[in-house]
Specification:
Elements: E1 7-10, E2 13-16, E3 20-22, H1 31-39, E4 44-46, E5 50-51, H2 52-56, H3 60-65, E6 75-80, H4 84-95, E7 101-106, H5 111-114, H6 126-139, E8 144-149, H7 159-168, E9 173-177, H8 192-198, E10 207-210, H9 216-226, E11 230-233, H10 243-253, H11 262-280, H12 282-296, H13 304-312, H14 316-329
Parallel strand pairs: 3-4, 3-11, 4-6, 5-6, 6-7, 7-8, 8-9, 9-10, 10-11
Antiparallel strand pairs: 1-2
Helix pairs in contact: 1-11, 4-6, 7-8, 9-10, 11-12, 11-14, 12-13
């Protein structure tokens, strides 16, 4: 089963074969996690989504989110906002960081984002979405891409038309999550309309599919069934950065790549933990790592007491001891 040999081009950026993208995820897609995904052959990554209002007000959290590292490239910065002029000001700030892509978030369904008129809220005002995107495209030489959803609700699944309109005003690629805003993350992602966007004869920019890809088998099935140019992976990569390597191996060989053993899992946990501490400080790094342990260590019989210890311990040396015990007892 030969790997697709074509190239996917986004502006001046060229990605080989069938690219796998890491979705922007708040409090997940930070440099420590991105480093692990890059190590496991992720082709294109994005920052956590960045509030343009936070950026133009020099909020420390927003400024820190746009810090990029050369070994992460190609990298995109994803922004969200409700006011066009704020978007433009933020774009000029971001240009100084020289990301490979600038992505606009029109898909985040979270209430606190939508209630401010940002993210998926723009799916209720397509003219404003198009105008905002047009102004951003005009304001920068960085390739502009968009991430969105099928529509606001079941009655307004208009992504085929929306994708055309956004392409016509200059975006260079689009990523589509196969749910409406009303679904949040419930039910199954419906890729039918993603396939319609990709197979629309008017579309010529890359179309990436997103939603529920949690195995190499499903990635290959959806690649073949819907014809997308690549796949964006979000929640399935949490605690499982190996998914990128596994999908690539399966697509190119038809064979299942062996799952990582406990020693590799613990090695990656420690790397993630240490990088998080270096990035965020000791206490925050330890606290924020807690949400990752269960996913890294799922599937091991009797592992729950160790996971509980990792999720409550605040002493770094004791955390290291727990990890060493896991390695020793699950060899």
């Amino acid at each position: 089963m030969p790997q697709n040999s074509k190239m996917v081009q986004i502006g001046q950026l060229v990605l080989d074969g069938f690219p796998l993208l890491l979705a922007p995820m708040e409090d997940v897609s930070d440099p420590p996690f991105r480093s692990l995904c890059k190590e496991q052959q992720c082709d294109l990554m994005y920052t956590e989504f960045v509030s343009v209002e936070g950026l133009i007000r020099d909020a420390d959290k927003s400024l820190k989110k746009i810090e990029l590292y050369e070994d992460e490239r190609p990298m995109g910065i994803q922004i969200f906002g409700a006011e066009i002029e704020s978007m433009i000001k933020a774009v000029h700030m971001i240009e100084e960081v020289t990301p490979d892509l600038l992505d606009i978030n029109f898909g985040c369904p979270v209430k606190k984002v939508v209630n401010k008129g940002c993210g998926a809220a723009l799916l209720q005002d397509i003219p404003k979405m198009v105008e905002m995107t047009k102004r951003v495209v005009q304001a920068t030489q960085i390739p502009v891409t968009v991430k969105t959803r099928l529509g606001w609700n079941e009655q307004s699944k208009n992504v085929v038309e929306v994708a055309e309109r956004l392409q016509d005003i200059g975006i260079q690629a689009i990523s589509i999550h196969g749910r409406t805003r009303s679904q949040l993350y419930q039910g199954n992602a419906d890729w039918t309309l993603i396939g319609e966007v990709k197979n629309n004869p008017r579309m010529h920019i890359p179309v990436f599919g997103n939603g529920d890809i949690d195995s190499p088998q499903k990635a290959l099935e959806y690649k073949n069934r819907f014809g997308v140019d690549g796949i964006m992976i979000g929640r399935a990569a949490i605690g499982n950065p190996w998914i990128f390597r596994e999908i690539k191996h399966f697509i190119s060989t038809g064979e299942v790549f062996p799952e990582p053993g406990i020693e590799e899992r613990v090695r990656v946990i420690r790397k993630h933990l240490d990088a998080g501490i270096q990035w965020k400080g000791l206490r925050t790094g330890i606290m924020e790592m807690r949400k990752h342990y269960a996913r890294y260590l799922r599937g091991y019989e009797g592992i729950k007491p160790y996971r509980m210890a990792l999720s409550t311990e605040i002493d770094l040396e004791k955390i290291y001891l727990v990890l060493s015990e896991i390695t020793e007892n699950y060899k």
